[in-house]
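Allow me, if you will, to draw on your knowledge of protein folds for a short while. I have a record of one protein: its chain in single-letter code and its fold written as C-alpha cells. Kindly check, if you would, that the fold set down in the C-alpha cells agrees with what the sequence suggests. Thank you for your consideration; the sequence and its C-alpha cells are set out here:
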Amino acid sequence: MGRIYTLVNQKGGVGKTTTAINLGAYLAYYGQRVLLVDLDPQANATSCLGVDKRQVKGGVYEALIGKSPALPHILLNPRLKISLLPSTPALAGAEVELVPELARETRLREAIKPLIERYDYILIDCPPSLGLLTLNGLVAARNGLIIPVQSEYLALEGIGMLTQTVQRVRAALFPELSIRGVVITMFDRHNLSRDVAAEVQKHFPQQIFQAVIPRSVRLAEAPSYGQPISLYAPSSTGAQAYAALARELLAGDGIQVSP
C-alpha cells in the first residue's frame, strides 16, 4: 500500500514545490511509482512538470468537489515515470465552494483513497497558506508531513504557526498526523544559514533530514524548462542533494536503493 506524504509550509518561497517535484522525480528514478498531487491553485507543480495549466481539462478540483473521480484526470510523464494529478485555475474557488459541504476537510483523503494501491508514493503539494485546501492536505497525510524550511530567520516564525495548526488538526480531525521530517532548503555557507539550521534542529531534534538542499541557480532555472533538476542538470549540487533526500526518505521507509 502506498505512502502518502504532504509537503507543507504556509510561508511562500521556501522551496516547497521545488522539493515536491524533485523529490518525486528522484523517487521515480529509484524505481518507485509516484503520484504528485498539485493542491495549489497557482499550479506551479503542474507547470514545472511541463504541463500547460490552461490546457488541463480536469484535475484535483473536480475530485475535491465530487464532480468526478481523480483517476481519469491523472497525467503520466513517460520520460520521468511520474504521474500528476494537476491543478487548474478552477481550484482557486474550491475553498469557498467547500465551506458549506459536509466532511469538507476530508475530501482529498477520500478522493485519493482509490489510488493508494496504484502508487508507492503519493506526494501532495499544498498552497502557501493555512486555508481549507491545506487542511485537506494535512488530513490526507497518512504517513506524515514533509516540511521544507528556508534557511532564513523569517522562516522560523512560520514554523511556530504550522506547529500550532498541526496540533489543532490532531486534536480535532486526525490524531495520527505526524511530521515525517523537516528539509532545510536554500542553504548556503554563511553563518546565518548555519544558525537557522541549528535553531530548526532545536524545534525538531529527531526530525531533520540529513540531506540539505543548497541555494542553486540550476534549481531556480529548471522550472522554466518544465523539468525537474534530475533532467535539467543531473550533475549539479541541487540534483545531488535531492537524490540524497530521496534515498534518505526511502531508507527511513525501509527501502534500500543504490546511489
User: Anything to note?
Assistant: Residues 3-252 form a domain with the Rossmann fold fold (CATH 3.40.50.300). Strands lie at 3-7, 34-38, 75-77, 82-85, 121-125, 145-150, 179-185.
